[in-house]
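Exercise 7. Given the components listed, write out the predicted structure of the assembled complex. Treat all entries as one system.
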Amino acid sequence: MIGGMGRWEPNARGRLEQAALELYAEHGFEQTTVAEIAERAGLTERTFFRYFADKREVLFAGAGTLRDLMVGALAGAPESAAPIEAVAAALQTAGALIQERREFSRQRQAVIAANVGLQERELIKLASLASALAEALRQRGVGEPAASLTAEAGIAVFKIAFERWQSEAGQPELPRLISESLGELRAVTAGG
Amino acid sequence: MIGGMGRWEPNARGRLEQAALELYAEHGFEQTTVAEIAERAGLTERTFFRYFADKREVLFAGAGTLRDLMVGALAGAPESAAPIEAVAAALQTAGALIQERREFSRQRQAVIAANVGLQERELIKLASLASALAEALRQRGVGEPAASLTAEAGIAVFKIAFERWQSEAGQPELPRLISESLGELRAVTAGG
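Answer.
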């Protein structure tokens, strides 16, 4: 524990995130103010705004990083990898990252599930992830509509695996659920 | 043309829709008022509100009908049909309906593409369609996660086919693009 170094606060971002999630869960997202978040974290509002543009960004600040890591994993898949395999590599990267932040992710999802506006924002995030993956596939030379279809199918797999991860009691790991859901998608599309 | 029957106005709904789409295209969705829509249609505001709760509903009033028809087509697919085939039947029903309303659909989509709030609403509509299809599959005895995955994959196919239909110059028919996109999804998921 290092502290008292001028205005630098140890793990200010993490403390703000945790304080925000607690307050959103206790009082609801709409009812919580930035002042309350800062107070709960033992920090100033000014410090809050050094890390987040507003209280919604506490929940969505990681989206850009997640997208960049997924696009990087897709781009870095072996040239010989089929489009769906390259997308699977991107999903596994996201799965490992989210699994590491399990508690944050679960708390975050509970807050989002309780607020229609946040659910809309989450859908937009997923749609924009699908667009980014499709663009990364086109960069690999995949044509249309294959690129968009593979990306959208990948996001569908991710969404279902994530929902199972949130709801299943046995605490299966997200990367494994992603593999299973992808296998299931292959099975259902092959059907008939 | 029948007219003058008391306060009954011939094809009031269609005239309001057309007037609204014209005004949204000319001045933007946000800038258009219900009063202007009614005036352009040669009707009163009161008549407008007999058909639509607000100006946004002109664009989304058909969503419930579309969902019911899709769920009906899925439920009515032969018992022997694989889940993906039952979803395909639902998509074809939607495709035929939208193809019939080609001009309305194209104008509507141009308005939505120009407004972030409407795009969000459209994403929510698609997510809720996926939920309805998954529920209809479960009613057929399909388990999870197969039901949700098949439904989400179907909506991905629909979304891509619809985008191609909007943008391609050769005016291919939407039902055919849906079949093609579904074939493409089968090919990409089988890959690797």
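Discussion: The CA atoms of residues 134 and 145 of chain A lie 9 Å apart. Chain A touches chain B through 37 residues (CB under 8 Å).
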